[in-house]
Amino acid sequence: MNEAIAPESAEKLYRTARTRLAEAGIPSPDLDASLLLEHATGLTVLARITEPGRLVPTEKIERFRTCVERRLAREPVHRIIGEREFYGLPLQLTAATLVPRPDTETLVDLVLPLVRNRVARNGHCRILDMGTGSGAIALALLAEVSRATATGTDISAEALMVAQANASLLGLADRFTAIRSDWFEEVTGQFELIVSNPPYIRSDDIPGLDPDVREHDPLQALDGGRDGLDAYRVLAERSAPFLAENGAIAVEIGHDQAPEVTNLFVSAGYRRIGRRKDYGGHVRALFFVK
Ligand code: GLN
């Protein structure tokens, strides 16, 4: 504890932090300073704006300053907070999980009509999320469609603990099963839908990634092998036995991978039934049936 720190106003703390973040070249200093202030002090953005003179007590100032130092060292803001919103759900994160990206919401949008349709027609829809990480895709679908069920696999036991914790916190644990598996190895049963946001970065491109990603997201969740397509080969070639009749498979892809990934699935006997662009205008998700 530093005895010398006197209480300061929320607005002044925010402004000082924003300036420091901006001067260090952090891309979104306003947003990051706001998010960290709220996280460290419990003061919402609204409270800061409507009561700018409100004093923040010493111990909360220390906590806030520690958070700002971590951000200045390029730790991603959502990792400092330990949470990120995905498809309207607050998801807990640890070092074992990729931070869920807004682009991945594209994949949820693409498959949601099929999940709703299967539940309406058959009363259920079994979903398999390969490499579930924080559980983002599976849990978003379960939250949207009340009678769907999901199995999330991951090779990381730690990631599965996070997925399971998220399922519990969101009240979805009774419809979510976590299985530790190297791709399909431990998976049994059949599913109306398989989804995956697999690792798809080319190994040679990893060193050039933004440090926020390269140094903080788990490499296992990023590295797609020499051409970035290793995971899609497994998904295209080994998924068929796990698909129920008329089952479908949807994957997130890198911004330039649509032609290659489509070819892999077509060569394995699939037909493409949909695709969807991300917020940046790149095809980000592909949808196939056998
Ligand atoms: N979209 C992530 C990134 O660009 C990569 C995630 C992945 O490989 N599935 O950092």
TrEMBL record:
Enzyme Commission number: 2.1.1.297
Signal peptide as annotated in the record: none
UniProt-annotated binding residues for S-adenosyl-L-methionine: 131-135, 154, 183, 197
Annotated binding of substrate, by residue: 197-200
CDD domains attached to this UniProt entry: AdoMet_MTases (cd02440)
EC category name: transferase
Biological processes, Gene Ontology terms: methylation
Pfam families: MTS, PrmC_N
Domain Methyltransferase small per the UniProt entry, residue ranges: 123-201
SUPFAM superfamilies: S-adenosyl-L-methionine-dependent methyltransferases (SSF53335)
The keyword Transferase is assigned to this record: yes
Catalytic activity annotation: L-glutaminyl-[peptide chain release factor] + S-adenosyl-L-methionine = N(5)-methyl-L-glutaminyl-[peptide chain release factor] + S-adenosyl-L-homocysteine + H(+)
Residues in Release factor glutamine methyltransferase N-terminal domain copies: 13-82
Keyword Cytoplasm included in the entry's annotation: no
GO molecular function: nucleic acid binding; peptide chain release factor N(5)-glutamine methyltransferase activity
Keywords, comma-separated and alphabetical: Methyltransferase, S-adenosyl-L-methionine, Transferase
Entry's family note: Belongs to the protein N5-glutamine methyltransferase family. PrmC subfamily.
Functional description taken from the UniProt entry: Methylates the class 1 translation termination release factors RF1/PrfA and RF2/PrfB on the glutamine residue of the universally conserved GGQ motif.
Entry-linked HAMAP family: RF_methyltr_PrmC
Protein name: Release factor glutamine methyltransferase
Species name: Oricola thermophila
